[in-house]
Amino acid sequence: MSGRTEGGVKDRGVGVILALATTLALLPTPAFAHASDRGHVLLLPTGYYLVGGAFAVAVSFLVLALLPPAALDRFWRRRLPLLTLSDSPRTIASLLSFAGFAILIAAGIFGGRDPLSNPLPLVIWTLLWAGFTLLQGVFGDLWSWLSPWYGSWRVASRLFSRRSDGRHPPRLSSWLGFWPAFVLFLAFAWFELIDPAPDDPARLAYAAGLYWLVSFIAMLIFGYNDWSKRGEFLTIFFSMVARFAPLERRETRLSLCWPGAKLLAAEPLPLSGTAFLLLALSSVSFDGLSKTFFWLGLFGVNPLEYPGRTALIGIGSFGLVLTFVLLAAVFALAVLLGQRLAGERHLFGKTAGLLVWSIVPIALAYHIAHYLTLLLVDGQYALVALSDPFAQGWNLFGTANMMVEAGVVAGAESAWWLWNIQAGVIIAGHVLAVLVAHGLAWRLHPQPSRAALSQLPLTLLMIAYTIFGLWLLATPTVG
Q1: What mean pLDDT value characterizes the chain?
Q2: Residue 167: what pLDDT?
Q3: I need a surface site. Which of 92, 192, 263, 468 has the fewest CB within 10 A?
């Protein structure tokens, strides 16, 4: 496989409609091996999918515009209590996570050089970035327990941070907002998508180890909560994704809610937080776009003679930034036009910071669809590599001799299933985004007619992005 290294009755009616939409979003879905790489071109009636996807998003907007806001509000507020949890094992879980991370770093430096047999790149790019994001979107904030920093910070703060004068550590300046996390996320995206060899085990080990150390020092200086909420991009990204999950935790009580319901209670993000969420979506979109025949043709690159990532560093860096700038500009325009149509004046920053939460279902859907094939194939390689992390012939978990079935993503039948699952996830994500956007709009515009009008430009943007996402799945790519 080609790779990263170089390559009431009324209320019941409302419930039925929204339950159907949320069920669609929960259907199963989506270096050397990479999610967007495929060995076939999808020879399917993609035009029908484009029209159907756009139609589904448009119809969901029209239906919501006619439904009573009070009934929808009651629908979103429904909760089913499950059980009570304790925070006491959190430190132990985090310390175990750090120990596993340390072993992976050692495997990256001292283990084999093949990214498909060394567990570090497989765990980082496949199990963590591709797979764990999906778990966050389904089960909630698991990362708060598995973060490799929390337990170490608790131990270190008790050992070294007790001051006789009783002073607290300095706080991160409020004017910085989420910009530290934005810069680090942009660097992460560049390393993943542009760097010539992000799958090289030793290169990745030094990068991941340095990032852990820098973040740990920042947590000791500013406090764990301050840095993890505004500076550590993985924690921020995972916590934003977890807001979509149908599991909600309030203090020690765990409850079941509708997917996306927690997004409606979110506070408006500052400009830096809005930019962070848009970057999360644009980076995944550019990952798919950067390997299309269309993109390479714009720069005179023959896709049948792909020169490799080293030759495309400049083009890739430009494209990564351009994709974010274009998405941010179109989103800002949609928000401004919505304000004009609604005829009510709200601060642009507050409106954009609130409505940007509707991007979360779209970003999660793109993440799942984009990384589906990576999970199916490289997930198997990860199981094999974890049994023998240092290439010493070990079989720690009994999976070292497991046969990797790469054929699960090859062939006409697999192509049909993959395409339909990916397309369904993208469409469902946009439909849910429309649902969430309407709920957020009612917080800004109490009158239903004004709320619906304010969402018209954003809905058009979501329709366009649905078409774009389905086109990315169907268009030919290199690799």
Answers
A1: 82
A2: 59
A3: 92
Residue 211 pLDDT: 97
CB contact at 8 A, 313 and 419? no
Please tell me the distance from the alpha carbon of residue 476 to that of residue 479, in angstroms, as a whole number. Answer: 10
The pair of three-digit structure tokens given for residue 359, joined into one six-digit string:
């991007």
Confidence of residue 360 (pLDDT cuts 50, 70, 90): very high
Contact between residue 122 and residue 381 where contact means Cβ atoms under 8 Å apart = yes
144 Cβ neighbours under 8 A, 6+ residues apart: 90, 150, 235, 239
CB half-sphere exposure, 465, CA atoms < 13 A: 33
Quick one: tokens of 230? 């505004």
CB 390 within 8 A of CB 110: yes
Among the listed residues 137, 138, 146, 147, the one whose alpha carbon sits nearest the alpha carbon of residue 228: 147
With tokens 């301050």, the residue in question is 226
Nearest CA among 444, 27, 459, 61 for reference residue 259: 27
* Predicted pLDDT at 65: 64
- More reliable by pLDDT, 315 or 16: 315
Q: How far is 356 from 358, CA to CA, in rounded Å?
A: 5
Q: Which single residue is written with the structure tokens 């840095």?
A: 227
Which amino acid appears at position 388 of this protein? D
Q: Cα angle vertex 46, ends 42, 47, to 5°?
A: 155
Residues ≥6 apart with Cβ < 8 Å to 128: none
pLDDT exceeds 60 at position 31:
no
Cβ–Cβ under 8 Å, residues 127 and 379:
yes
Q: How far apart are CA 74 and CA 77, in angstroms?
A: 5
- The residue among 218, 86, 88, 87 whose CA lies nearest residue 153 is 218
For 418: left if phi > 0, alpha if psi spans -120 to 50, otherwise beta; the answer is alpha
Residue that has been written with the tokens 């985090």 in this structure: 94
Give rounded-to-5 percent helix, strand, coil for the chain: 70, 5, 30
Do residues 115 and 32 lie in contact, with contact meaning Cβ atoms separated by under 8 Å?
yes
Report how far residue 435's alpha carbon sits from residue 269's, in angstroms, rounded to the nearest whole number: 19
Helices (H) and strands (E) in the chain, counts: 20, 3
Q: In sequence order, what DSSP letters do the residues of 259-276 get, joined into one string? A: TTGGGGGPPPP-HHHHHH
User: Region 378-384: what's the mean pLDDT?
Assistant: 94
Query: What sign does the dihedral 114-184-307-382 (CA atoms) show?
Result: positive
Query: pTM of the entire structure?
Result: 0.85
Sorted by sequence, the CB contacts under 8 Å of residue 185 that are 6+ apart come out as: 233, 237, 276, 279, 280, 283
Which band of pLDDT confidence, cut at 50, 70 and 90, is reported for residue 94?
A: very high
Contact between residue 408 and residue 414 where contact means Cβ atoms under 8 Å apart: yes
pLDDT-based confidence at residue 268 (cuts at 50, 70, 90)? very high
